[in-house]
Amino acid sequence: MAIGDWSSRMRGAEPCRPGTEKNKGVAVSPSPARRPSFREVFAVPEFRTLWVSYVLSAVGDRLALVALTLLVYDRSRSPFLAAVTFASGLVPYLVGGMFLSGLADRLPRRSVMVGCDLLRLLLVGAMLIPAVPLAAMIGLLYAVTLLQPPFDAARSASVREALEGERYPLAMAIMGSTTRVVLVAGSAAGGLVVALFSARPALAADAATFAVSALLIRFGVPARKAAASGEDQPSPLGQLTEGIRLVFGDPALRTLVGLGWLAAFYEVPEGIAAPYAGRLGGGAVAVGLLIAASQLGAAISTPLFTKKIGPLTRLTWMGPMAILACAILAVTVLRPNLVASMGIFALSNSFAMYQLAANTAFVERIPNEKRGQAFGLATAGLIVGQGIAFALAGAAAEVVPPSTVVALSGGIGAVIAGGLAIRWRGMSPAVGRHTARHLGREASLTGQTPIHAARSN
């Protein structure tokens, strides 16, 4: 739900509370005002700071991950150790997402981000010490990843605090597209840096990005009090329990999280890109093209979807788009060539733009003081789901053609998406000429002033 950045109030309405009838509605624009532009989003200094900080850290992380994976393999010649290194985003992110993301609620969010950056600077710096054992380097990398969830949770919640209304979905579209570009460019740059120099310059660059990011956030993000203030704050375990009850105890939030986790199915092509390309007679270039095509589809479609389509329509199209994102992959059962496969993967990920609508709807239902924990749970589930899906797909590709594995993954995902779409359809209001009537009827039942939908759906 790359995953994922979220809030508890609808503009012009009372706070949404999980488990209530009112919470079954959706967040819609309170007036037919002109939609904001991407320029207006970047005009907000706090968002610019958070975005630049994110770009620096994300590029540095990809450089370091690729460099360390290659370094471990070069020293050990062990595919297993290399895989363990590259999988550093799985177990640590799960633990950090569950137990550390709540720090973004209990402590000031700026302090959490700066603190995580400085700790990661020290950890990556330790990797630069000559003759560090491989086991220690892998352990340090896992520790660095462990600090990523609280930083992500604090950053996502801060973006929502900095941007109101329709500027927030635009900001998330920018972040999502940036993530996809960084995944491709960062991996390629990591391999190039290691090939031209060595792994240590890449690690040094990663350490430098954490230092710059900490400075940017410290002086570019305003100080705010902790969102979950008060003396009756629960313990970390109690906060985790409350977060699980909040996210999975409410039918709407449960459905939205499920829609977000569908990425584990339609991103399987990236997880088995190497064997897929190998079956087509391609090498490293073909692997890169397949991954790039997948990322490019969503990187282009998501900003357009956010800018051109109104909020209510985005919510209504969310279910069908989730189905298409998965179902399109079933075409690979015909064993298409490289160019056709690139087109299929790009089209599939183009429909993944529904994730932005799911993210925004999730945000509007989460109280500010619980955002960090909720973000952490949703993101940790997605990361782990992707890891499991990739592992199962890789194992299956040992037995059947990779194209068949992709088709099966897409088919299973489409069936699950269909069930989620049906559930969501019963929760979200209709779009079009009946929308006002629906909202007016809901207002008469709840005794609230109706929320006016945006003029453009």
Textual characterization of the structure:
- It is built from 22 helices and no strands.
- It has helices at 38-42, 45-76, 79-86, 91-99, 103-106, 109-127, 134-146, 148-162, 167-196, 199-220, 236-249, 251-261, 263-266, 268-271, 273-279, 284-308, 311-327, 338-350, 354-363, 371-396, 402-425, 435-446.
- It folds into two domains: 36-223, Up-down Bundle (Growth Hormone, Chain: A), CATH 1.20.1250; 234-426, Up-down Bundle (Growth Hormone, Chain: A).
- The radius of gyration is 22 Å and the shape is globular.
- The chain has 457 residues and is an all-alpha fold.
Total domain units: 2
In CATH terms, the superfamily of the largest domain is: MFS general substrate transporter like domains
Treating each run of at least 4 consecutive H or I residues as one helix, how many helices? 22
The H/E string reads: HHHHHHHHHHHHHHHHHHHHHH
Kindly report the CATH topology of the largest domain: Growth Hormone, Chain: A
**In this structure, how is the largest beta sheet organized?**
none
- The beta-strand count equals 0
Radius of gyration: 22 Å
- Give average pLDDT, whole number: 80
Q: Which percent range fits the helix content?
A: over 70%
Question: What is the strand content?
Answer: under 5%
Brief descriptors of the model:
457 residues, mainly alpha, 2 domains, 22 helices, 71% helix, 0% strand, globular, disordered N terminus
Describe the SSE topology.
Layout: H1 38-42, H2 45-76, H3 79-86, H4 91-99, H5 103-106, H6 109-127, H7 134-146, H8 148-162, H9 167-196, H10 199-220, H11 236-249, H12 251-261, H13 263-266, H14 268-271, H15 273-279, H16 284-308, H17 311-327, H18 338-350, H19 354-363, H20 371-396, H21 402-425, H22 435-446
Helix pairs in contact: 2-3, 2-7, 2-9, 2-10, 4-7, 4-20, 6-7, 6-8, 6-10, 8-20, 9-16, 9-19, 11-12, 11-20, 12-19, 12-21, 15-16, 16-18, 17-18, 17-19, 17-21
